[in-house]
Amino acid sequence: MDPFIFFALLQDGITTGAIYLLLAIGLLIVFSATRVIFVPQGDLLAFGALTAAGLQSGHVPATLWLLDGLSAAALLASLTGGVRAAGRALLVWGVYPAVVSLASVWLARREIPAVSILLALAIVTPMGPLIWRFAYRPMADASVLALLILSMALHFVLIGLGLVFFGPEEASVPALSTANFTIGALDISGQSLCVLGAAVALVVGLGWFFGATVQGKALRAAASDPLGARLVGIDAGATGSLAFGLAAFIAALAGVLIGALTPLSYDAGFEIGLKGFVAAIMGGLVSYPMAAAGALLVGVLESLGSFWASAYREVIVFTLLIPVLLWLSLRRGSDEDRA
Amino acid sequence: MKPWLAVAATVAALGIVPALLPAFYVTLFGYVGLASLVALGLVLLTGISGQTSFGQASFVGLAAYATTLLTKFAGAPPIAGLVVGLAVTGSVAWLLGLITARLSGHFLALVSVAWGISFFSLFGTIPLLRGFNGIGGIPPLTLGALSAANPRVNLAVIWAVVAAIMLLSANLLDSRIGRAIRTLNGARLMGESVGIDTARLSRAVFVIAALYAGLAGFLFAHFQRFISPTPFSLGASIDYLFMVIIGGAAFLWGAPVGAILVVVLRDQFNDWIPRLTGQPGDYEALVFSLVVILLLQRAPGGLMPLLLRLRPRKRPDVAAETASDATPALSIAPTGAPTGAPTGAPTAAAGAPGPELLAVESVTRHFGGLAANQDVSFAVRAGEIVALIGPNGAGKTTLFNVISGVLPPSAGRVRLFGTAGGHLAPRRIAALGLARTFQHVKLLGGRSVLENVALGAHASGRAGVLRCMLRLDRKEERRILADARAQATLVGLGDVLDRPAGDLPLGQQRVVEIARALCLRPRLLLLDEPAAGLRLQEKQRLALLLGQLRAEGMGVLLVEHDMDFVMQLADRVVVMDFGQKISEGLPAQVQADPLVREAYLGSVA
Amino acid sequence: MKARLFAIATVAGLLVGAGLAQAQIKIGAILSISGPGAGMGNGYKGAFDFFPKEIAGQKVEYIVRDDGTDASNAYTIAQKMITEDHVDAFIGPSLTASDAAVAPLADKAKVPMIAMAPYEYDPHKQPYVFNDAQPLSLMVAKVFKYMQQHGVKTVGFIGFSDGWGDAVLAATKTAAAADGIRILDDERYARTDTSVDAQVLRLMSRHPQAVMMGNSATPAALPVVALRRRGYRGGIYGNHGIVSPAFIKVGGAAVEGVIADTSPLVVYKQLPAGNVVKPVATAFMQEYTKKFGPQSVNPFAGYSYDAMLLLKNAIPQALKVAKPGTVQFREALRAALEKTHELVGVSGVYNMTPDNHNGQDSRAAVLVEVKHGAWREIH
Fold first, then answer.
1. Average model confidence (pLDDT) for chain B?
2. How many CB atoms lie under 10 A from the CB of residue C127?
3. Residue C71 to residue B9, Cβ atoms within 8 A
4. pLDDT tens digit string along A7-18?
5. For a Cys staple, C271 with which of B11, C167, C278, C338, CB 3.0–4.6 Å?
6. A271/C192 touch (CB, cutoff 8 Å), yes or no
7. What's this model's pTM, rounded to 2 decimal places?
């Protein structure tokens, strides 16, 4: 392998690693706040990318109607909860979808890349809280395993919807940057820099959010001590909603970023999401820095692995888990007895 | 329901049903049978032992490809394919189990996703396996002149295997090993405390589940006679899990019920949804998954509990249950000293303390920077009751965990029964003759009191998985159950033997733990707050029992907050505060110790 | 539980009985409508909207099912269609792997099957199996002839890591040897991969003059995009599996100049006036695009349509022998299919013989190039 190829692969690996990092962060946020292993996050990634691609080719994407339908259902469900709750719900599940819908219908025809991407984020982000509301919250007290199985079923639902909404073909998202920089013999694509920039911005933003805002602190409290958080009046429903909202936003963001690097189909998100998992598991499902290191390792290993043995790339990435788990299990020992 | 009766009915059905079914349903129910096999493994794994695998389909695939390679390309007889297929599947599962056995449930599940994808990817890329084009023309199973090329014969073969596996699994669950397996589901610490090697056992369950899947894979290859990677994908693994969840993960019958529902539902959806929507391919998976989600939300225990409720069944034990509800068992007058009590382990001279059983020597235990125990030393001798007291957070339970081997000490040592005092795993310590109860009661809530108590006799049995499956353990099992019954009766649980332990009031549950501990025939008994939640009469009765055990030469170390109970019963008292021993002596001496008064008054206020 | 099982069986039996009572022609179609092959599957599926409801006075029922791009699924569905639906013929499967799985079943049950993916088999061993997609050898030879004429001496191969990639590579080797072109590299990737940069970099490090692709549908755009992004300037060639508007939509500007072989159907408007296929293809595609939009032109719909034309041509002769739903009818149908002579379809002209169950010739292949965002014929 000559250095040119090596650096090209390295750049590729770091870029995809940054995507995995984003997903790993989303997974950790949701898992720590709600004990849900959010498998469908990868599918929301595909939703984000394909919604942006749809808007960019002048269509009003069907995800918008899903948002409207689920929002209406949430609005109806909130009517039983008293006047104040209904008022708030009207704002969140009535006014917001209406605004986004009007904006999408009106702006889709113009095909402006930045607008398509922003609208895609606006459409996909609320799906997080809506999924939480209708799928997970009815069985929020179930075991981690039951929730995981629910996640798997939900993944198939989203895949099914994806096929109906977007059809089987792949689509590309407009790139935020088509620039190319050359440093010596190295080509660096502007889109790669965008991905890295977005990852860094997100990490910094989340750091601020968890450290300085009331909602962020509440989310952290709920993660470290769910019972205590409930006792001091932190609403489990609200923290769940927030965590899923963040995860959906992150997924959609990752989708519009990676969708510009490679065409995505309705079912492409799952595998990308799984690699985010591999990273999150490397952090023991608790540590953000470890997960970040894991994400970059997965990205680079995958990139180099596909050069040496492309057919066995998946095997290489997932086999990576074995030494990590051995180490984890030796370090942690048995921890099953948490009823 | 008697398992053998169900099996007899199944065998009869095996002769009749395949002959009557329309051709396609012969094929369909063949798939149901194969799926049931995999699902049965998942019931043991998920429903009973609380682990989950999203990789079962890859085990099916391993065995299927193994037998295909051997029989089609090497011309070996199918029996060789079966043996090799199961050997490969079993060893791979054993290795994976070795890696993941110590991790908690959701890690195993996530890792199983990883190997599910890896194996699927390997099936698709290894050139020998012909990738996604698959391999056709696999020879059918033959027995002399009898060929199972006929799908109806195949169906009978498959369901005969299913019936046999159901029977073996039912046998396994109703045995010493079966009880032990149930402790894997959230009560491993307790399992270890009665001498169960939980890591090894969970690996065994994992291998059993994989072997069931491998058996299905072998039959699949010779039944369909065409294999390609897709039936062994992650999606297929998830389908098996859906079957178990839908059918009822805690029931063996949940496996075939779930398999029938999932296979038939999917087939019907594939037929009807295109007719309704005019669009084949777009909605089937979507509708199916929505149904699964609704079931998960509405019937988390699966359909078996609902089916069981539908069954009009006479319950002869109802009267007995209501009777015992009315009169709590422990308030009945004590049975008195039973003659020939089966607790007599070592016989020391009654009344006088015997040899030293436990020596805690300068034990220190840190958690991060926090010292939960600091340089603690004391001893317990045969035939005495030592109480360990102290305010909340004094480090008593930590010390208990260090003594029973759950935690290694950071410094110092624990010498049990005169051993050198290296750190031993809880189950080794249990084997030496130490039994314990838990501050937060650890019982199999859904199982009977008798079964819970019998867990204590686990280490006295020898029957392994195979013997239990084949019912060769009956003599030993009778002895274990008789032993358990005797111990339970001794502590006054004789009237509630058949009730689910979780239905008893908390005080009685503590007594069940004590009976379980006694089943170990310990020389030293560690009791963590045995009197908490007991009523006055019950406490008196417990005191009587402990006194009697002391008289028989047993050493008892107990943590207790009830001062009256402690002061009446204990021979010596050890007082701890902030992780340190602040006082030790006779009850009266300790009560007079100003340090003790300060510790209690200072913290209680 | 057994009682319930028995009840299900009884009900099912009644349903099957009811199905048998109607005398009509039943045609089973197994298509890959979801999963990785879905991009092509939709084309195959679309053509069914234009199939006749009656042939030679007999009602025809088309049972279309999705195999999810999964050969095992296709196998199960085919079993059901044979034993429960009692189909008289199969159209498809549309996936090479599914064809391989279903062909032995169809042959054993004596159900004529018209495979719609380039699938090689021996008509003497499987006399009930036909194929209406152009054989790869025919198509790839056309591409290499073009390369040779344009001075290409070395090619690198990149294709799917599955049966399709293998098949195209095999045809590539034959054609390259015939035309004196050297194959420098063989790179593979999976249909579901999201990045092929590593393979592309390795391919480029061998400096081939041109690249031949053994992939299909929209995932075929991935290596083209990567090659162009990495600055590869040589010619990029493909097989007929890539020719669809979706390929251009996904690949964008990067796929300009890609050359591939395809059915005449795809460039029906540009065919010369004397071409025999032109009127049939034009009539079909005009209807098809009226329903699915001008961007929907694809060769796969043509294979479904030709399968129907082949059956429509053979059914009247089979009806003279026996009633639909009988083995005699299927035997006669097979015999009639084998005698197909100069049948003009939308993808080519068919002349079947006992030795050749495809029967296409060079009239079934044209070369096309992506120019200004559309496939255009080149001569």
1. 81
2. 17
3. no
4. 888 888 999 999
5. C278
6. yes
7. 0.84
